[in-house]
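Internal ticket #5521
Category: modeling
Description: The requester needs a full-assembly model to guide mutagenesis choices. All entity lines are attached below as received. Residue total reported by intake: 754.
Assigned to: D.W.
Attached entities:
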Amino acid sequence: MKKSLFFGTLTAAGMVAGFAAAGTLEDVVARGELNCGVNTGLVGFAAPDANGNWSGFDVAICKAVAAAVLGDPNKVKYVPTSGQTRFTALASSEIDVLARNSTWTFTRDVDLKLDFVGVNYYDGQGFMVPKALGVSSAKELDGATICIQTGTTTELNLADFFKANNMTYSPIAIDSNAEGEQQYLAGACDAYTTDASGLAATRAAFATPSDHIILPEIISKEPLGPLVRHGDNQWGDIVRWTLNALIAAEEYGITSANLEELSKGSSNPEIDRLLGTSGDLGPMFGLDNLWAKRAIAASGNYGEIFAATIGESTPIGLARGLNAQWTQGGLLYTPPFR
Amino acid sequence: MAIATEPPKQGFRLSQLLYDTRYRSMTIQVVVMMMFMAFAAWLVDNTITNLAARGKDFNFGFLSVRSGYDIGQRLIAYDSDSTHARAMLVGLLNTLLVSFLGCLLAVAVGVTVGILRLSKNWLVARLMTIYVEVFRNVPVLLWILIFLAVLTEAAPLPNAFKEGGSASMLLFDSIAVTNRYTAVPDPLFSRSLGNIDIGIFLISSDLMALIAVVVAGWYARRLVLRRATAVQNATGERPVTWWKSVALLTLPAVLTLWALGFHLGYPSLQGFNFTGGINVSNAFMALWLALSLYTGAFIAEIVRAGVMAISNGQTEAAYALGLRPGRTMNLVILPQALRVIIPPLISQFLNLTKNSSLAIATGYLDLRGTLGGITLNQTGRELESVLLMMLIYLVLSLMISGVMNIYNASVKLKER
Ligand SMILES: N[C@@H](CCC(=O)N[C@@H](CS)C(=O)NCC(=O)O)C(=O)O
């Protein structure tokens, strides 16, 4: 009561609900539903289909957490958030997890009091231009008009990049990817800039994707990952290790196809601990021993999720690149399950 | 002789606070005041507790930190190395610019439409009615979006203006309407007086000089008119003043412009965009036009009401004295109508200024877009930013109504 009245008065200040107190796990279990913050619609990462069913690379994280905690990957309420509203939504407990192409930065982690639990996509900022513009490098964009989404790391990188290269530009601030797409296609800006993965996903949704190119320059590091509120370590651990379970499953060759068989017991003790055949990892953070098995069953291991949502066989067509397992020359490397 | 008996002396009883009408209103006021103060104290306390629970403090230090972002339209020097405070100032000036130009255009439109709506010409009066009803009854946000959509969808791309392209510039190649901005000529001075540095930003001395001579000319004209009235009162004949008025209003400005070496810098297409002129962004255009035309419709009604409030007998009396319709309007009707018009006009100006924060829909970076948008977001200082923004809008509104009240006092009926 006290809380709701207070924040009713202060919604203008962007603070919508109460304390970032411990006990997110209890809240989620009591509610029977996970509130997961996603983006407003970026095919491949998070987008609803015609029936309102969400799918995508970030959505798979929400599903895995819901499966681990609630036993059902469909018990998720997807909350679309914009670049400007996402962190407030998380800080004010409107959502339990934010999985929305969000870059792990010092200020977000430290000053905004949020905890990034890991990285699910190693990315960098790029530029997309129409082929007809005849530009082949970002260094040729001097004087161009550029669309950027506000409230993102993107707008800060852009300013730095142009300054460092002694070039000028006119920024057009946009609020969502949909608006950016529309402005860019209408020619209101010469180039659209955001995370390279986001560019690929945006381009895939165009009527004629081949009319647009993504320039070779990558101007920043954008480690994207899911995040939770600072201060509730139990909940943070659950989300962190659910992500790790998906990545480890790929490393150890656990797939949707062989999951049932492997969970009867295998020759690899690490797999047995992960799938709960031996050990008692789950109870250590308040879940049962089959949490990871359910998380993997939700949409498969990391590699399967990648291939189904944004991989080379999808219209988005992203290569694994940095996001391959460390054994394949990539950066994915989970700490051991023991 | 009767001896007046003293009324029985009675002490003050507590119940009097409730039942005695002399004290009751005081009691109620004190109780309400205490409740209000308790509520305020509780709000502040709650805010502090909640901020502390989230590990946040309340401090405005972020304003002096490097902002790191760029702003498309800036009236003063600014880049990503400037502070958040300066970004806020850039936004505030953008708010002031669109509000000021909006008020000017809204009054111009409103007065014209309001008077034309009273026209005896059936078609003109109906057209004005349609304008008023259409603009007044659709939310201003929709008007902003419509103007923006029309500007971005209907106008050609800048590179359509290339040699042999499909689009061409207007007015002897001086104006280009594109889907991003309207490129217009830039006023330049070859014998410029330079800028005055007032610490925070630079002010163009040329502009100041121009304003000074125009104001001086205006003042001189008033003296001339006052003399004419004095002569008229003494002799019954009013000297011809129109050419003096015209000269005093235009010549000083023209001479100053000439002395400063005024010329225009024409925009031309260089690479991706037009340079050399001023690019007035579509976001600004859409916001300005929508706000002005929307508010103009309300002002038209206010003006019409003001004129209609003056009884018809006044017009007839003026005609009977032989005044022509124009004179009747200027000398008899308007001075009286202004008394009715000014007070509601103040609230329209306040509305327009506050509505300018709908710039959020166009991407025009005003105060809400900088302080309440990007700065708030990049620093995570919601409470501080929003409170500061509210304070600035409050001060702005109070200043506008202060100035307008002074004007109102000067035109209102003076009873002697
Ligand atoms: N990684 C950057 C940018 C994230 C971002 O906003 N990405 C865009 C384009 S990839 C997006 O997800 N838009 C979807 C939407 O507007 O809902 C950040 O965290 O600030």
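Resolution: model delivered.
Comment from assignee: The pocket of glutathione is lined by residues A 39-42, 82-83, 101-103, 149, 152-154, 176-177, 194-195, 198, 222, 224 (CB under 6 Å).
Ticket closed.
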